């Protein structure tokens, strides 16, 4: 009997099947289009058995059955679950690993539960390589099903900095897919940070080899990270004597998880300017492309920058500051979700399972452990981050010439606002009350008040 099935054999499914097989599992595989199954069968991987019929694939499984679904997020997942349900029996488990919205996961869990089937929503990160050698896995759902499938996931997961599997039970409902969504939002921001530092180098006319060297050195110590590791590789690629990156059109694509992160943060009233700026930057790149005929020659007077300003220390600390603000904002959303949805996602576990296999793995994660438990540590982190990012803002200000730097500015505004003794929002409250009697609080009196702006309408305490 086969130990589990994998449905969907594109990039992720086929590599995950190989990962399970390499750990001694007998894996039944199925794909809607048989050609993909045939291609995988032709590789003759020991432990992988292909099926042309879904029913045969499911019939081949030991009981209770475990079926991993790795098809395109959205309708394809619903379609696959619909086809699976009549083939499964009570206590079987579907592990749905696509980039699904956490609300869709809850709806699918409810549907499956009606059929006495468990559905574990499981975020997966690490791309092709992660799926093959060890991804970071973010599962959530029914406790009984979780205890059954967790050992299976532990077998194939990446390892954290202490050698433990990068998988944990994140809790109820779609909290696993929620954490994966936040992971992707952070990923958007970290990548935008790297892109902006690269753009500064380009702007300043820094030689290509020096750009590589700056990034290569930045990928060490506290900023050691997968994204910086691949930054150097992407930057180094040459085609016909010029950096290949120069031949790529400057419009960033996205598949929606960054947008979901921002939408969710808005729903939960969490300010995430760094992550939002990264999303907006991608959207702006499409708009800018559409408006290319309007491009003007912006002046780039690079000689105005003092060459000693753009140092390795500057590059590393700017990246570090942006990475920290990106993670902190993502974690803030998880904290708010715990309250709003009555979840109990353990932030320490989230930071741990992101240490290996996933795209946002980095040494910075270790600095954030328990950060929201200690106001002093949090204040110190904000202060250090402010120093790092404000130096970036100063360097940028010393450049004459115009360039968009959304993430540097958003991150700076974020930390400086959090550390400021006063903000001008008292003024907003005054204006709101003037035109709409929305009320305000006073520094020296408890309660909310309104009025006092017009003759004959004294300030009154609001009920
Ligand atoms: P894709 O997201 O490219 O999806 C392709 C797979 O979906 C194929 O197996 C395809 O079958 C199947 N499929 C489609 Br399209 N419509 C279907 C339907 N109506 N019924 C059944 N199957 C259908 O694959 P992927 O890149 O391997 O990603 C799989 C999941 O993992 C996605 O949710 C993705 O967001 C997530 N993910 C991907 C990555 C990554 O780096 N690629 C990383 C993390 C998570 P076909 O062969 O018959 O067309």
Short synopsis of the structure:
The protein is of the alpha/beta class.
Helix % is 40-55%
Described by strand count, sense and barrel closure, the largest sheet is: 7 strands, mixed
Based on helices, strands and strand pairing, what is the structural class? Answer: alpha/beta
Q: Outline the low-pLDDT stretches.
A: none
Question: What small molecules accompany the polymer chains?
Answer: nicotinamide 8-bromo-adenine dinucleotide phosphate
Question: How much strand?
Answer: 5-15%
Over all CA atoms, what is the radius of gyration? 25 Å
* Amino-to-carboxy terminus distance: 69 Å
Question: What best-fitting shape do the alpha-carbon axes yield?
Answer: globular
Strand order within the widest sheet? Answer: 3-2-1-4-5-6-7
The number of helical elements comes to 18
Average pLDDT, rounded to a whole number, is 94
Structure, described:
There is one protein chain. The protein is of the alpha/beta class and 463 residues long. It is globular. Bound molecules: nicotinamide 8-bromo-adenine dinucleotide phosphate (NBP). Nicotinamide 8-bromo-adenine dinucleotide phosphate binds next to α1, α4 and β6.
Task: Give the topology.
Elements: E1 4-7, H1 11-22, E2 27-30, H2 34-42, E3 48-50, H3 54-59, E4 66-69, H4 75-84, E5 93-96, H5 102-114, E6 118-125, H6 127-133, E7 136-140, H7 143-156, H8 175-203, H9 208-218, H10 226-236, E8 238-239, E9 242-243, H11 257-267, H12 273-290, E10 300-301, H13 312-341, H14 347-353, H15 364-367, H16 375-397, E11 400-401, H17 406-419, H18 425-436, E12 440-442, E13 445-450, E14 460-461
Parallel strand pairs: 1-2, 1-4, 2-3, 4-5, 5-6
Antiparallel strand pairs: 6-7, 8-9, 10-11, 12-13, 13-14
Helix pairs in contact: 1-6, 8-11, 8-12, 8-13, 9-10, 9-13, 12-17, 13-16, 13-17, 16-17
The chain binds nicotinamide 8-bromo-adenine dinucleotide phosphate.
């Amino acid at each position: 009997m086969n130990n589990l099935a994998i449905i969907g054999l594109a990039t992720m499914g086929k590599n995950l099947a190989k990962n399970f097989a390499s750990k001694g599992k007998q894996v039944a595989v199925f794909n809607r289009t048989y050609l993909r199954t045939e291609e995988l069968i032709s590789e003759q991987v020991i432990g992988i058995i292909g099926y042309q019929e879904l029913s045969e694939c499911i019939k081949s499984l030991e009981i209770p059955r475990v079926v991993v679904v790795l098809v395109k997020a959205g309708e394809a997942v619903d379609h696959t679950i619909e086809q699976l349900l009549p083939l499964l029996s009570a206590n079987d488990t579907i592990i749905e690993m696509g980039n699904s919205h956490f609300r869709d996961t809850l709806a699918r869990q409810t549907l499956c539960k009606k059929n006495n089937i468990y559905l574990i929503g499981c975020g997966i990160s690490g791309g092709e390589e992660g799926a093959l050698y060890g991804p970071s896995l973010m599962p959530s759902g029914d406790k009984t099903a979780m205890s059954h499938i967790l050992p299976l996931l532990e077998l194939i997961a990446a390892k954290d900095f202490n050698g433990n599997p990068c998988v944990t039970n994140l809790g109820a409902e779609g909290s696993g897919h929620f954490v994966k969504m936040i992971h992707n939002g952070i990923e958007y921001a970290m990548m935008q940070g790297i892109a902006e530092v690269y753009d500064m180098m380009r702007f300043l006319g820094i030689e290509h080899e020096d750009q590589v060297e700056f990034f290569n050195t930045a990928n060490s110590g506290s900023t050691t990270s997968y994204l910086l590791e691949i930054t150097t590789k992407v930057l180094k690629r040459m085609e016909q004597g010029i950096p290949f990156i120069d031949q790529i059109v400057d419009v960033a694509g996205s598949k929606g998880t960054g947008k979901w992160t921002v939408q969710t943060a808005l729903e939960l009233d969490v300010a995430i300017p760094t992550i939002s700026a990264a999303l907006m930057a991608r959207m702006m790149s499409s708009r800018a492309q559409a408006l290319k005929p309007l491009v003007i020659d912006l002046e780039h007077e690079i000689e105005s920058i003092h060459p000693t300003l753009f140092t390795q220390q500057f590059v590393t600390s700017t990246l570090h500051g942006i990475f920290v603000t990106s993670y902190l904002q993502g974690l803030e959303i998880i904290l708010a979700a715990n309250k709003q949805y009555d979840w109990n996602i353990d932030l320490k576990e989230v930071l741990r399972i992101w240490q290996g296999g996933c795209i946002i793995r980095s040494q910075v994660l270790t600095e954030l452990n328990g950060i929201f438990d200690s106001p002093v540590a949090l204040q110190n982190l904000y202060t250090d981050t402010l120093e790092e990012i404000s130096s970036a803002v100063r360097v940028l200000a010393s450049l004459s010439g115009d360039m968009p730097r959304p993430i540097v500015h958003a991150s700076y505004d974020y930390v400086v606002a959090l550390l400021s003794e006063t903000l001008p929002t008292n003024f907003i409250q005054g204006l709101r009350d003037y035109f709409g009697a929305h009320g305000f609080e006073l520094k020296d009196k408890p309660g909310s008040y309104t009025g006092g702006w017009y003759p004959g309408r004294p300030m009154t305490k609001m009920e």
